[in-house]
Amino acid sequence: MNENIFRRNELLAQKVIKGLQSRNMTGYYAASREEAQKLALSLIPEGSSVTMGGGMSVHEIGLVDALKNGKYNFIDRDACEDRRAAMLMAYDADVFLSSANAITEDGIMINIDGNSNRVSAIAQGPKKVIFIVGMNKVCNDVDGAMKRARNVAAPINAQRFGLSTPCAKTGACMDCKSPDTICCQFLMTRYSRHKDRIHVILVNDSLGF
Q1: 17 lies in a domain?
Q2: Residue 200, strand partner residues
Q3: In this structure, are residues 200 and 25 in contact, taking their beta carbons and an 8 Å threshold?
Q4: For residue 190, what pLDDT is reported?
Q5: How far is CA 175 from the centre of its chain?
Q6: For the purposes of burial, counting CB atoms within 10 Å of the CB of 206, is it exposed (0-12), middle (13-18) or buried (19 or more)?
Q7: Are 21 and 15 in contact (CB under 8 A)?
Q8: Dihedral (C-alpha) 131, 135, 139, 140: value to the nearest 10 degrees?
Q9: Nearest CA to 189 among 104, 126, 113?
Q10: CA of 43: how far to CAs of 59, 123, 158, in Å?
Q11: What are the Cα distances from residue 61, in Å, to 9, 56, 123?
């Protein structure tokens, strides 16, 4: 990464962290993927039950492999015969891992979901939620964050899943009502009622979509 971009991201991350703190959420800065993984593991006590949605960023920093190989009860929905049962276990898990489709400079997160298991677990259920968020997800304001979620994250994910949606074909949101749409539920996380529940690790890297 260009040194000037790296420094800009470092400074911007501190602004986002202050915004998160004002919203009763805890923010952290990681200069690399490796540092982000260490930070995340420091927040997860051994023996914890841990699960996640479909966050690519969590995989990209190597956190999933570290949990599978460590002393944790990692609930892997993709390895379970009963996928629905595995997804429901998330609501009583000690830790839920996720990324964000976008985050504003003052700490508001936007997430869009198709099955809605991810956004519902973020909102309520797991004792702790840890977000892994690349600095490429930071937007000026809620309007910009919503546009990013709908016009960047959603089309790429629709293509990744091989869905037949207008955005998968055009690369931009068409505000569709396609049977394949993954824009079913929109969650704006602007404040945490419960202190120490939501933790956001900002990574000085481009992660996810």
Answers
A1: yes
A2: 27, 131
A3: yes
A4: 98
A5: 22
A6: middle
A7: no
A8: 110
A9: 104
A10: 17, 19, 32
A11: 18, 9, 24
Which tens digit of pLDDT belongs to each residue from 107-132?
999 999 999 999 999 999 999 999 99
Do the domain assignments include residue 148? yes
The pLDDT tens digits for 56-84 are: 999 999 999 999 999 999 999 888 888 89
8 Å CB contact between 130 and 201: yes
3-state secondary structure of 133: strand
Residues of the domain holding 131: 3-203
Q: How many domains does the chain have?
A: 1
39, part of any domain: yes
The answer to whether position 208 is within a domain reads: no
C-alpha torsion sign, points 168, 174, 176, 181: positive
What CATH number is attached to the domain comprising 144? 3.40.50.10420
Cβ neighbours around 197 below 10 Å, total:
17
Q: What is the pLDDT of residues 90-113, one digit of tens each?
A: 999 999 999 999 999 999 999 999
**Structure tokens of 171?**
């690369």
- 165 band by pLDDT with thresholds 50, 70 and 90: very high
Backbone phi, psi, residue 25, to 5°: -120, 155
Answer positive or negative: Cα dihedral of 168, 121, 100, 141: positive
